[in-house]
Amino acid sequence: MNLKDIIIDETLKLFSLKGYNNTSIHNILAATGASKGGFYNHFKSKEDLFFQVLEKARKIWRQRNLEGLDKVKNPLEGVELLLRNYKDRYLKDSSSFPGGCIFITLSVELNDQNPILFSEIDKGFVGLKQMIRRQLDEAQRTGALRTCIDPKMVTEILFNGMLGASVCYGAGKSAADLDNTINALVAYLHMIKN
Fold first, then answer.
1. From the CB of residue 1, how many other CB atoms can be counted at a distance below 10 Å?
2. How high does pLDDT run on average in the chain?
3. How far apart are CA 136 and CA 76, in angstroms?
4. Smallest Cα–Cα separation from 157: which of 180, 132, 139, 137?
5. Which of 8, 57, 112, 123 is the most exposed place for a label (fewest CB within 10 A)?
6. What is the mean pLDDT of residues 128-155?
């Protein structure tokens, strides 16, 4: 692994644990063993590094959460698989994200303090909600979801349940609580299907 990749990987962990503002260039240099010159040879600034860390985090998120979704035919089963992947393959990954979901950590921190960086994170949240909504709309169109159910409302419940599970897991690291929360969302899906 080259120095640039090492800096990105280690900073991803630091941002997950400490956030953006509380992670200094000095912290990054100490974690990677890089010199200031080595750092600035690859990144113009900490903000430049932020965008590259964010891209790496998005790539990990897609790999972990979307695994197997292309093989699922029933859209409700796809949403269920997304929830299980989110729990088992993403949130429980303490090697990449020792502080929990980096997107939650950064969004809470940057919302008021740095709207430009926050807007980049928010794009992912918007995309996740749209993906869930598309699956639920398709489930209703194909008869897998009851017609009396509002896909928009279910999207909000699932999305906010996922975020809540992430916050609680990041704070307490209780795998049992995480399992209970995601399993409750899955049980809800089973209650509203045809």
1. 7
2. 96
3. 7
4. 132
5. 112
6. 97
Distance separating alpha carbons of residues 139 and 130, to the nearest angstrom: 14
In this structure, are residues 16 and 105 in contact, taking their beta carbons and an 8 Å threshold?
yes
95 C-beta neighbours (distance < 10 Å), count: 8
Rounded to whole angstroms, how far apart are CA atoms 125 and 131? 10
* Residue 12 and residue 54 in contact, taking contact as beta carbons nearer than 8 Å: no
Please tell me the distance from the alpha carbon of residue 183 to that of residue 189, in angstroms, as a whole number: 10
Domain spans of the chain? 57-192
Looking at the chain, how many residues does it have?
194
Handedness of CA 38, 56, 169, 120 (dihedral sign): positive
| 173 to 83, 156, 169, 181: CA distances (angstroms) | 18, 24, 5, 13
Q: What predicted TM-score, i.e. pTM, was given to this entire model? A: 0.93
Q: Would you say 96 and 12 are in contact if contact means Cβ atoms under 8 Å apart? A: yes
Residue located via tokens 């599970």: 165
CA dist 186 to 80, 85, 149, Å?
6, 12, 16
Q: How far apart are CA 69 and CA 62, in angstroms?
A: 11
- CATH class entry, domain 57-192: mainly alpha
- State how far the Cα of 20 lies from the Cα of 50, in Å rounded to an integer: 8
